[in-house]
Each structure stands twice: as C-alpha cells, then as structure tokens.
Amino acid sequence: MFFITDFKKKSCLETISKQVGQLQLEPPVVRNVQEAVTLLGRKDVRVNCLDEHGMTPLMHAAYKGKVEMCKLLLQHGADVNCNQHEHGYTALMFACLSGKKEIVWMMLEAGADTDVVNSVGRTAAQMAAFVGQHDCVTVINNFFPREKLDYYTKPQGLNTEPKLPVKLSGPLHKIITTTNLHPVQIIFLIKENPLLLDAEALKRCSAVLDLICEKCMKQRDMNEVLAMKMHYISCIFQKCSAHLQEQENQLDPLIKSLLKGREGDCFPVFQEKFIRESIRKFPYCETTLLQQLVRSIAPVEIVRVLLGVGNIGHIALNSSLAAAESDPMDLTPQRFSVLTQAITGQVGFVDAEFCTTCGEKGADKRCSVCKLVIYCGQKCQKLHWFAHKKVCNILKEKREKQELEASKEKKRQERLAERELKSAESTASQEEDNGESEASTVRESDSTVEETVTSAAAAAADDDDDETSADPIQPDAPEGAGQ
Ligand SMILES: [Zn+2]
Ligand SMILES: [Zn+2]
Predict the structure, then answer these.
(1) What is the pLDDT of residue 314?
(2) Longest C-alpha distance within the chain, in Å?
(3) Among 41-50, 181-190, 250-259, 423-432, which is the least confidently predicted range?
(4) For 262, which DSSP code?
(5) Do residues 169 and 150 make contact, with C-beta atoms less than 8 angstroms apart?
(6) What is the pTM assigned to this prediction?
(7) How many CB atoms lie within 10 A of CB 5?
(8) Can you give the pLDDT at residue 322?
(9) Which residues lie near ion ligand 2 (Cβ < 5 Å)?
(10) Measured in angstroms, how far is the CA atom of residue 76 from the centroid of ligand 2?
(11) What pLDDT does residue 173 have?
(12) 378 CA distance to ligand 2 middle (Å)
C-alpha cells in the first residue's frame, strides 16, 4: 500500500507502509503508528490512494485487523465507502474478514454502508457469516447510528414537542445497540440510568421504538430484523413502565418474576411467556422473519417436552457436561436464544457460556455447590439464588452420580484397550521375524488408535513385567501415561 504521489519517495514510503502492515508484531507498534502520523501529515500523501488491486490503506489496515491504524486513517479522512477494489470489497468487508469486532464497529460509526455488495453479490454481513465471523455479523445487525435516533429529539412537522427528550437519546441508544437481548439484561441497563427509571420516560422511549420499527418495515430496504428488535425492546420498556407505576418505582420484583422457576424443574415460565408474547405481538405478521420465529418456537416446545428442558438445547447439547444433555434439571438460560439468533445473527452458541441470570456471553463463574449453572458475576448469582436454591442440591447429586458413572465407564474402556493391546502384542511378537514395517504402518494409519494403544501400553508397562521391552511403541509410553 502506497501513500505516495512522488516517485522518488516511493521506496522509503513503501517500506514504512509495509511496516504499517505489521503493526501488531512485536516492538515497533507505537513507532509505526507515529510514522504513519508523520506520513499522513505530508501534503504529497493521499489517504485514499489505491494500490494495484484498488485497495486503500484503510482496507489494508482493516484486513490486517490494525485497530489503531484504522482509527488514525479515519481521523485523516479515509473514505470508508471507497469501492474501487477489483472484487468490489469495501473496508467494512475487509474488517469482517479480519474478525475484529471493534474495527467493524469503527467502520459503521464512520458511516460504512452495510448494503453494498461485492462482485459476487454478498454484503459485508453475509461475508462475515460465510467465513464464520459471527460476532461481526452481530455487530452489523445491531448497529443503529445515533443520528437516526437523534432525529426524534427534534420536533417534526407540526409538532412543537420532540418525540424523544434529548437527554434520553444517549441511554436509549445504548440499549438499542446492545447485543445481549436477555430481558433481565435489558432491565439492568434501564436500572443503570436514573433518567430511564421513570414510567413516563420509558413510555416515550417505547413509542419512539415503535416508530423506528414501523420505519424499518416501510422503508424501501425493509429491515425486519431491526424492526423485530425495536419491537421487542419496546415491549420490555412497556412492561417496565407498567411495573414502575404499580410497584412504586421498583424493577426488582419484575426481575424476580422473570427469574422465578417453575415448581419441579425451575424453568422460568414467566420469562418464556413474556418473550413469546412479544414475538407474537409483532405487528407485521406477514414478514418472513416472524414466520420463521414462530416456526422455530414451535419445535422448542416439543424439544422441551421431550427433554424436559427449558431451552432449545443449543447450550445443553453442546455442554461440556454431556450429562446436561438430557437432564430435566438443566437450567441453561437459552429461552431467548431463538429470538437472539434471529436478531443478532448469532448462530454459534457453541463453546460459549451464558450467564443464567442475564444471558451475558462468556460467563465463567460456576455455582460452587452444583457446578452446573454459570453466572457472569456475583451480582447475578445472588439475584438467581432464590430460584436456584430449590434445585441446587438435586443438581449436585445428579452431577456426582453422572461423574461416577463416567469414571466407571472410563475404567472399563481402559481395561478393554489393555486387553486389545495384549492380544496385539502377542501377534506382533509372532510377526517380529517378518520385520517391524507392518506394525509401524498400522501406527501411522490411525492416530487415535495409536493414542489408545500408547496409553494402554503405559498402563500395561506399570503393571506387567517387561515382556514388551522390544515393542516399537515403548519410547512414547511416558508421554501417553501423562495424558
Ligand atoms: Zn449475569
Ligand atoms: Zn448450584
């Protein structure tokens, strides 16, 4: 990537540009950004120059995931929507390929157009999904420019009053751009801001959300995903507003009822009902998204009945504790995942842990007793305890029983492998005269077999006297034993 117009300066600038591309490598990190600052300050350097593939410096920086460099280039007027690339890629698309959420966000804030397609007709979000960068898809799907919200803070048409008081725009914007749609999490965000903790304020916000929802559906490029999200948050605001009026400005009782579990399996019925009702109340019933959602809700009910679990099984089925899979006591909080999935575009619930209380991703604090439910922190654990305490001990017993069974099964497998090994050994010693080549072919052909054999060999080596010393797999044994 070149910043240059003057041929004579090319080589030195090229070197710097190349260094810029390696920003994240060891020490020269700061030095390179500073050099780029100097470079961008020069009159003969164009921030939007193109290389032979039609790529701008911003595209390069986005592709390589250089956060600071992107920031710098944007500050210097880099065109976020430059579309001269040979395959029609934009800086946003490159950011998606890099998988760096913050760069994607930065591009969006700088006004990146999300509807542009590349030469094969893919948008940035579709490209991100294609390469498995689901977090980037989520960022794009949940982006809502502040200006679009600020529009409602000015009186429109014949109105003398704005629909949204200026002071509410910031707090509301924070909520509508959130990617965690768990109702409890949204109530946390409301509680966080005293301006929102007011029945009247919430009503006004809700009305604005309904207007945005309508706009999303009626504009030329209809956006049902965003419309559904606005509608859903609006439903939560209405609920909170009603509760604030009834319950003397308290939202805690509402949180409690959302977390309260059903007798027997602790399934939060009220929460589930609330989400379902919100989806059903979506005013545009002809949309494909709604139909999809309704269709995916139906099987949830069935799965729940089948498994006796209160979720669609994403977490349950991928849980590290296979035990949770068909455990009627499973408490993972993914009731809202159908909706979340549809709205945020998150499909990869795999390998992610979600807080039982608020649905926050990346929760890693387990209940110390049952070790089956996870929370993002102590606050959430405390909030959930009134519901969880009824099943915690039962869950603990179940887990212990399952662990015991698993360890028995493991021992059984080990004994089996040991026996197989012994018979293999006797065959091998018979064939030894024919050369060792055959044995090594077997080992190379299947590494899992090899591992089993190796660890079994280690186990055997401990117990048995060395009949096996001549075996070719002996040197690996200590390693296998450590596993
Ligand atoms: Zn939490
Ligand atoms: Zn517990």
Answers:
(1) 29
(2) 100
(3) 423-432
(4) P
(5) yes
(6) 0.64
(7) 14
(8) 28
(9) 367, 369-370, 392
(10) 53
(11) 94
(12) 13
Nearest to 348 by CA among 317, 314, 320: 314
Distance from the Cα of residue 74 to its chain's centroid: 27
The count of other CB atoms within 10 Å of the CB of residue 166 is 11
Chain centroid to Cα 357, Å, comes to 17
Mean pLDDT over 264-284 rounds to 84
Distance 375 CA to ligand 2 centre (A): 11
Find the radius of gyration of the CA atoms of the chain.
29
The rounded Å distance from CA 400 to ligand 1 centre is 26
Token look-up 């799907």 returns 141
Residue with tokens 């080549």: 437
CA distances from 433 to 344, 429, 438, 469 (A): 65, 8, 11, 16
Residue 380 Cα to ligand 1 middle (Å):
5
Question: What are the pLDDT digits (tens) for 215-230?
Answer: 988 887 777 888 888 9
What is the 361 CA–ligand 1 centroid distance (Å)?
9
Residue located via tokens 């801001």: 193
Question: pLDDT of 364-416, one tens digit each?
Answer: 999 999 888 899 999 999 999 999 998 899 889 988 998 999 999 999 999 99
CB neighbourhood size of 61 (10 A): 29
Residue 145's CB is within 10 A of a number of other CB atoms, namely: 13
* pLDDT, position 294: 66
| Mean pLDDT across 304-323 | 29
Which of 57, 64, 100, 97 minimizes the C-alpha distance to 80? Answer: 57
Length of the chain: 483
Q: Six-digit token pair at 449?
A: 């077999």
**Of the bound ligands, which one is closest to the alpha carbon of residue 394?**
2
Distance of CA 252 to the CA centre of its chain: 28
Per-residue tokens: 313 = 């099984």
Distance (Å, whole) CA 467 – CA 474: 11
Ligand 1 is a single-atom ion; what residues have CB below 5 A from it? 355, 357-358, 360, 376, 380
Whether residue 18 has pLDDT greater than 60:
no
